Amino acid sequence: MTAFAGLERGSQGPAQPPPDSGKTRGRWTPYFLLLPGMAWLAVFFIVPVVFLVSMSLQTGNIVDGYELTWNFGTYGDAITQYWDQFVRSFIYALIATVAALLIAYPLAYAIAFKAGRFKNLLLVMVIAPFFTSFLIRTLAWQVILQSDGIVVGIMEKLHIISLLQWLQLLPTDQVIFSPFAVITGLTYNFLPFMTLPLYASLERLDPRLLEAGGDLYARPFTSFRKITLPLSMPGVVAGTLLTFIPAAGDYINSHLLGNTSTTMIGQVIDGQFLRVLDYPTASALSVTLMATIVILVAVYVWRAGTEELV
Amino acid sequence: MSEMGEDPRNGATAGAARLPSTPLLRGLTRRRLLGAGAGVAALATLAACGTPGQKERNADAPTSVPDRSDTDKIVNWSNWPEYIDVTKNGKHPTLESFTKRTGIKVNYTEDINDNDAFYAKLQPFFTQGQDTGRDLLTFSDTYCGRLINFGWVQELDFANMPNVTANLDPTLKDVSWDPGRKYSLPYQAGFTGIGYNTKATRGAKVETVEQLLTDPDLKGRVTLLTEMSDTMGMVMTSMDIDPRQFTDDEFDAAIDKLQKAVDAGQIANFTGNDYGKPLASGDIAACLAYTGDIVQLQADSKDLAYALPPQGHMVWSDNWQVPNLAQHKKNAELLINHYYDPKVAAELVDWVNYISPVPAAKDVLVKEDPEVANNPLIFPTDEVRARSYLFMGISYEKEQEYNRKFQAVLAG
Q1: What are the chain A neighbours of B226 within 8 Å (beta carbons)?
Q2: Residues B172-183: pLDDT tens digits?
Q3: Hey, which CATH number is domain A82-308, 3.40.50.10070, 1.10.3720.10, 1.10.286.20, 1.10.10.10?
Q4: Domain B68-189+317-382: which topology?
């Protein structure tokens, strides 16, 4: 993303003379620098994707073998049958991303500007959850959200439960095994991915700009709206992408915290791959999920403007 | 491919002419060309590929290698976690007594957490005719049946296992997916029944699957199992359908019944064996559960109860199998033989609390640990045994068809 943005900026900025390091020497440097990354992508991304797409167009079974029949019908069947789960995954991921942004922005802002000597400690605390596994962290939420627990007790006192029921995020008075629990889990699990890019972009903000704003009689809110927020947009875009993309494909949170009507597309793919062993359907669903995310991200980045993605 | 072999300077000059030149920009242009070349090559491969089936592969693939057991005194065994006796300092007495008795070292690995995931891990080895590096596997029934169907496991030599011939539980001798037990032997067995939290049900008993699926007092507080044979078998027993022998129509009727319960919001979720926490906390009032799990959970919580429905319940077993190309088959058989010694079987079952395939273990335990010997969940009565059903042995195609229908219900 950064390299790409650098290119965009380079193309718009004034033409710079090429770094003159002789005719042949240095010309190959960029290729050598790109080589490890490209090799990695080729082996671990491009090849698997080709196999995935190929599998989605094959028919057969493991006993008689699979044959490439260009059977696009698999896509039609898979998408029709699991349309609800697709839509649900994107809605949950969207809500979780917005929630994570609302939590992470003040957090990152506080760490960047107000934390003083606690800055490093707070950053470590943001990353601390990564010391345990994703699965264990999600299982912990089963305990946090259990009916006779403290959290649910407080939520009841503050009438948050009735509010959530009104919003249809809680089908019963139970907090666990509900859409709310799934979205909470997603928000929690991907919060560091939102916080860190936001922090990185806020931390680089030049405080003199804010001082200048103050000198020109801008109220603090106006300064924030006209200076801080626009300059932190790259962080917002990066953070929302890093949250939304994995959240849309997640299958752990909904499995452990949800119920039978919160099934997300990741769970369906997991079931088709590992239990039904219907590889073509599972591949078709995976390809569809990837393609949809790529399109959504492309539109989003295009609307947000790549030149801001510094 | 031709584009990749192209003179690099041409690409670079073209890029430099079009755009303000920085080395990286030229790189991008070049990268596009490389990408296009790779794309064409990939498409060509894609068009050509496909995967040969198991029938074709098995035709000319060897299934065994010369046995190295006598010179190489080791055996590699993959098992489930916490499924063997273990002392405080992490030793396994039953394995140590085997090494003492035979001089064979056991490389014991707990790498099966989930049948599906472990199957997915080993499948590439089998389909490509490679050694899995393991001499003993411990899959559950359906999966053992699948491995036998595909010809991925070796026939066992009973001459190496006199204890098995003498002590194997006669009711486990014939299973639908391995008649006569030629390719598999049970390690431990267990029942699938109903676990419930008496506090959450306010003292009410939950003893039938019918209650799980329809009782309004349990609405939204029931979990079933993601394992198709367990859940569907239990639903079928509640409809007086024999899970050992059923028709497609009967299976569909059971699916309908399950779907109705899911649509009504009766079922909170489908789980692996992660039902313990919510059941203990009361968020789940009742669920389908495995005997051994409940015996262990009961040690922590007095509110937990277990019921085997009067209509019958499912029995399952985890079974030893020797995969193709295993290098220490004889050592593996000697290890199985060791565990069929009633004394060793008693020591093991005393720790893991599942059901032993060696009934004679009870006689040993009556003296040593009468509490375990008299626990009906560990040594069930004949009457309970008569009501335990093993899921019908089915072909791979049928298994796939049933799983597909079952997964559609799970997706809600």
Answers
A1: 275
A2: 888 889 999 999
A3: 1.10.3720.10
A4: D-Maltodextrin-Binding Protein; domain 2 (3.40.190)
Amino acid at B367: K
Residues of A within 8 A of B31 (CB-CB) are 34, 38
The whole-number pLDDT of residue B113 equals: 85
Whether residues A174 and B31 touch (CB distance < 8 A) is answered with: no
CA distance B244 to chain A (A): 21
Are the Cβ atoms of A82 and B49 closer than 8 angstroms?
A: no
Which tens digit of pLDDT belongs to each residue from B229-282? Answer: 999 999 999 999 999 999 999 999 999 999 999 999 999 999 987 898 899 989
pLDDT tens readout for residues B186-217:
999 999 999 999 999 999 999 999 999 999 99
Query: Which value does ipTM take for this structure?
Result: 0.82
HEC secondary structure over B150-175:
CCCECCCCHHHCHHHHHHCCHHHCCE
A153-206 pLDDT per residue, tens = 999 899 988 888 888 888 877 899 999 999 999 999 999 999 999 999 999 999
Describe the crossing of helices B361-368 and B342-352 by its angle, rounded to 10 degrees. 60
B-chain residues within 8 Å CB-CB of A62? Answer: 53-54, 127, 150, 396
Q: Is B397 buried (19+), middle (13-18) or exposed (0-12) by CB count in 10 A?
A: exposed
The span from the CA of B267 to the CA of B351, in Å, is 33
Q: What is the CATH number of domain B192-315+397-410?
A: 3.40.190.10
Angle at which helices A229-249 and A179-203 pack, to 10 degrees?
140
Task: Determine which of A67-76, A231-240, A297-306, B145-154 has the lowest per-residue pLDDT on average.
Answer: A297-306
